[in-house]
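step 4 of 6: structure.
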Amino acid sequence: MIPPRLKPLDDAALESLAAARKPELWAQLRARTRAAATLEELLFLSNLRKKAAESGLAPEVAKPNPLRLAVVGGYTLFPFHEALEHLLSVEGFQAELFVGDYDNYESEILNPVSLLYAFKPDIIFVLPSDRRCRYTGSLLDAREAQQAAVDETVRGLLALCATAHERTKAELVVANFRLSGRFELGPYRARSLGNDWSFRRAVNTGLGLRAPAFVHVCDAEFTAARRGNLSSEDQRGWLQSKQPGSPEYQLELAREAAHVIGSLRKSPKKVLVCDLDNTLWGGVIGDDGLDGIELGDTSARGQAYKELQKYILSLYERGVLLAVVSKNDHEKAIEPFEKHPEMVLKPRHFAAFKANWRPKSDNLKELATELALGLDSFVFIDDNPAEIDIVRQFTPEVTTILMGPKPADYLALLQDCRLFEPVSITAEDTGRTEQYRAEAQRKTLQESVTDMDAFLASLEMQATIAPFRDVDVPRIAQLINKSNQFNLTTRRRTEGEVEELARSRNHECFTIRLADKFGDYGLIAVLVAEVRGKAMEIDTWLMSCRVLNRQVEEETMNEVFSRAHARGCEKVVGRYRATSKNGMVRDVYERLGFKAVSSTAEESVFERETAAHKRVKTRVWIEQKR
Amino acid sequence: MQAVFDRVFTKKVQVAAELTSDHVEGWDSLKQVALVIALEKAFAIELDLEDLEDCKNVGEMADVIAKRTAKTGG
């Protein structure tokens, strides 16, 4: 796991921080919450957080729009909901909660005028009752009949989710079913679907495989198995107060739920930056030489490094960018990649390779500029605590993992870091390294051609402008939730909200795809505009920074004004809402001919008459899809 | 006992033998679950909700807890 940066304080020290209304409380509370081992401790921390807020200590970040989270299910959802709310809160997701009644989730979802719907949730967490997930026939029934019952249970649960989604456009987070740790049938349990253990396992599999994009599985089966199925049960808690499991299981389930909910609202990391010596292989290449480093199947340590490399390769294959930052001479550092027979990772797997003697934090900053990605999408691994410390101090946005003294642990450290979990894998992800490599080639070309227009012409760019199509919804939502830099308003939306926009008559929505002679960038820009009487207001405009200054901005405005004209809008209104990351687009509207009409530190508003806009000629060849 | 109440309740509750749940804002059957979890941790005992339901006030609760701690030899 990632070592906490703060030495956790004890209860009394934490209470006095809260009583003195010290803002350090929030960071300390987060460190303790991440490390909390019992539900009782978590509830204490949650209580402390509430006390501090009530005593007037300002929250860490003021969020004007809390997440509206409904928690419904087949159990008493107290104190589970409190744990969930607290875990979300300390990670920066303020949530307003609706808590369903014990075992009322089906009627809350089916009744169109229930309190659930009055609450208008953004996200609905469903903890279905395991009593609704069992085979009612005999252990000896035909397998087909048992399988049909499994399918029917999955279908029923997904139908419930679909109903809730249709009525709210909320994303659904659904817990699957925990398996029993009791011996019960013995090994026979696996030979029939007609018992709880096999039946629930089959339902869980079916649920995962058949869940549509708006349903996100909170893997209760995995959560319980990881901590122990037997100690996750709590028959006494069930009988007395209808608790979903033991207190500590509930804590872990709440952690898992908070993780899934958080991952809907924040992007996974994009880049893994690796140190080399004693991280990707054992020993120091500069001292030990090619023959002296430990790597490969001949020793246990060498094998550990090879296993780690295989895992890193699997990250690359699902779209994570790899980079090297190492204190080495370049020729020495690259040698194992080119000549060592046991190296799994090859130079072509890396989007960038920095082996030099400058501080690693400087190299990381440079990497961020070169790859046009925020430092907060970087993860850095190193075996040297001093290097980790420098990176934490000078580039605190970067997430660091200290690999520690035992190479045998390295694989598990990465597998458990929870930083590269895909929410949904899109085709764009898998092609990403190729795109970034092509970008590096383009930069070389850019240096050789001095005339910008000639350069743009030489790229042979082709763009496709299309309305929001169903197949693009996951990618559109991903961009809406990930893009930080070229993003004028930074309004985040779920897939459900995107679908709703696509159908709205008052909105003009389109996407742009771009390809050039070096490769296909995929879907790179999203625009949402709302028609308000005689004005068209740009609600969302974002673009992948990789295609900045390629005249896509101009073509985007050509499209906006042509739609404004078609809709009879006399002017187009643009808005810039400042965040810590989108300074690069502060002037984009003015650059494109808009006039500022009002401006504060948080928000500037720009306008341009539709009639004033003349179509800008660019080097991008445009294809329109309707 | 006071320490446990401080951990569970957001508003300060002064623990006294004659205190009852009716006198404490937010002390409902749901809060009772959190209270039981906290009491079990603090005194290293197992408590049944039913035992506490029969208690008229905090003083009687303390008696139940004392009996349990004696039983477990604590």
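step 5 of 6: annotate
 - Residues 143-168 of chain A form the longest helix (26 residues).
 - Chain A touches chain B through 18 residues (CB under 8 Å).
step 6 of 6: archive
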